[in-house]
Amino acid sequence: MSSEYRALLKKLKLTGPLAFVDLHKFDRNAKKMADLVRPSGLHIRVATKSLRVPELIQRVLNSDPIYRGLMCFSAQEALFLSEQGFNDFLIAYPTVCPQDLSALKKIHDQGKEVYLVVDSIAHLEALSSIFQNSSRPFRVLFEVDLSLRLGPLVVGVRRSPLRTTEQVLELVRHIQSISSLKFSGFMAYEAQVAGVGDRNPFKPLLSKLLKPLRHFSAKKIAQKREQLKSRILAEFPQTEFLFNGGGTGSLSFNLPENQTLTELTAGSGFYCPHLFDYYSNFNLEAAAFFALQVVRQPEPHWFTCLGGGFIASGEPNWDRIPRPEANMKLSGFEAAGEVQTPVYSRTENLAIGDSVIFRHAKAGELMERFNDVVLIQDGKVTANAKTYRGFGQCYF
Ligand SMILES: Cc1ncc(COP(=O)(O)O)c(C=O)c1O
């Protein structure tokens, strides 16, 4: 497939560095996830951090009514998207930064749906002073910790301190005295199921362990979510429940939970970066790529491209490095390079000026490297869509 993209870029006279998305594949991924979730009756909230291109976020929302609302990573991002005409924002990561709080107030005052995820009294205090003069209360969701704790071992992410139903109930009771805020449900993300593949060739041992662990953890998570919801409803029957869970990697695990969850989240699955090849529970197509141009040939079989880096966040490892085409490999010494990236191929006879096609390890981070992304369909460029960066937006 990569060689077809290479030929296409040549025909279109497009030279790297550039990012491109194959819209047919992008749309097929959106349809596959929608069809998977549809029988459960749940909605899918779109994780914008995994797209970072407003035109593509809109394309997903237009593709199927199952996609409803956005999960943003920053309040200022949500304000930007609100100004672009989007609605219904869940900001998934707490903030106490004054600029963020005033961004939330602006969206709220526009009458749009907006939720912030919080987990502590300090978060509630920061919000209550900002919203004290608002005409209607601001909605907050509590994040519940779903990491798997096996003795001293923590399998999952370290985010919320809310581990037990009692701790959650205490915070729900506390918020009742703050008239400017309204408790509106939960976000309960299970990173150890959603965010790690169980057939990662770069981590064979961990992958072996993860397979049974993901199933074990998913069962416990379902019980915990259900218990939490029923305890809250027993004491606060008026709670209007939004209950968000999951990500692309755990869609299939969460489907039986349609009595507890009200919605799932997905983002990375639309582009399907290479870390999402390493899951045994779904099969999506690579839809987002970048191309670098060969500018030097230091010795036979080595081709040095202009541009590089593009390392994904997370635990440093070879699985965070972009992957070149199937019959090419990176140098162990330089890896993904900095401003130049050498690739080795015994079979490809590249010329100076040719492109090499790569896939990023993660989804949205690729778009932080470009001002626009080339959208390709049926062998043609349909648009150059601006990324957040192209709009001059940079959050963190
Ligand atoms: C709270 C939350 N929900 C969902 C996701 C999953 O998003 P994706 O589908 O892009 O993996 C993430 C990813 O980091 C997250 O932090």
From TrEMBL:
**Family matches, as Gene3D superfamilies:** Alanine racemase (3.20.20.10)
Task: Give the source's domain of life in one word.
Answer: Bacteria
Domain Alanine racemase N-terminal intervals: 21-195
Q: Which InterPro entries match?
A: Ala_racemase_N, D-amino_acid_metab_enzyme, PLP-binding_barrel
Query: Can you supply a Gene Ontology BP term from the record?
Result: D-serine catabolic process
Could you give a GO molecular-function term held by this entry? D-serine ammonia-lyase activity
* Pfam families per UniProt: Ala_racemase_N
Q: Which PANTHER family match?
A: D-SERINE DEHYDRATASE, ZGC:162816-RELATED
Identification of the protein by name: Alanine racemase N-terminal domain-containing protein
* Species of origin: Pseudobdellovibrio exovorus JSS
